[in-house]
Amino acid sequence: MDIYRHAAAFLTRGDDQVPPELYGHAVACADFLDDWGVCPLLVEAQVGSRTHKYAGTLGMVAKLPTRDAVLVSYETGSGVWPECALRAAAYRFADFYVSEDGAEMPVADLGISAAYGVHLRADGYSVHPLDAGEETFQRFLDVSAVARNAKTFPALVHAPVTPIHLLKTGDAASERRTVRRSNNGAAALASEPEPETSSWAASHEAEQ
Fold first, then answer.
1. Is residue 119 classed as helix, strand or coil in its secondary structure?
2. For residues 93 and 133, what is the distance between their CA atoms, to the nearest angstrom?
3. Which of 48, 85, 145, 206 would disulfide-bridge 130, Cβ 3.0–4.6 Å?
């Protein structure tokens, strides 16, 4: 995440080489890291579950001054939404994460005790505790199952079909349909009123 990278640079060397469009968010992220005394353990680490067949990339796992290990999800949109809690639960209860040297390590060994959604804005930040417990994890699994099944929904509707008896008597049916349509067309033309002659045109013809 470019915003975190710039924020970390702010804190370590006072780096100000930040694109203008990211500057406010990077400062907000740096303020969060400084205010909360965040000590990163994992940053943008891949996690996965072979048990439940999903994978993703978490934002951060960090130690706080209380020594608690917490999961941090950065949000830069309009706010922190419920989907953020579902993702956090998925990360927290994943089977493994991939370390910097490429090894798979148990997520459970990190001892994550809480999760937070951090809303980064150009004018500041706000920290929202997330319910990322086992009940939320089960909801994530339920939603994931529905999403996977939804991919098969188009197969529930098949191509148009023709009645079997029309396949056997197609020519006669086609003739009847042609007659009906031609009759309807003729009837429609017959029912159309003749154009009225305007009073001006009638008087003009009479004068001539």
1. strand
2. 9
3. 85
22: which 2 tokens? 């990211």
Three-state DSSP class for 188? helix
User: Among 83, 87, 3, 86, which residue's Cα sits nearest to residue 43?
Assistant: 3
Asked whether 58 and 91 are in contact (CB, 8 A), the reply is yes
Tell me the C-alpha distance between 15 and 129, whole Å. Answer: 30
Q: Quote the pLDDT of residue 84.
A: 96
Helix spans in 36-133 (H): 82-92
Q: What is the pLDDT of residue 20?
A: 84
Contact 129, 116 (CB under 8 A): yes
Predicted TM-score (pTM) of the model is 0.71
> Do the strands 69-75 and 96-98 form a parallel or antiparallel pair, or are they unpaired?
unpaired
Q: How many CB atoms lie within 10 A of CB 59?
A: 23
Pairwise CA distance, residues 22 & 168, whole Å: 69
The torsion angle over the Cα atoms of residues 132, 134, 140 and 145, rounded to 10 degrees, is: 170
Task: Read off the pLDDT of residues 37-86 as tens digits, 9 standing for 90 and up.
Answer: 999 999 999 999 999 999 999 999 999 999 999 999 999 989 999 999 99
- Which of these, 143, 135, 28, lies nearest to 76 by C-alpha position? 28
pLDDT of 109 over the 50 cut: yes
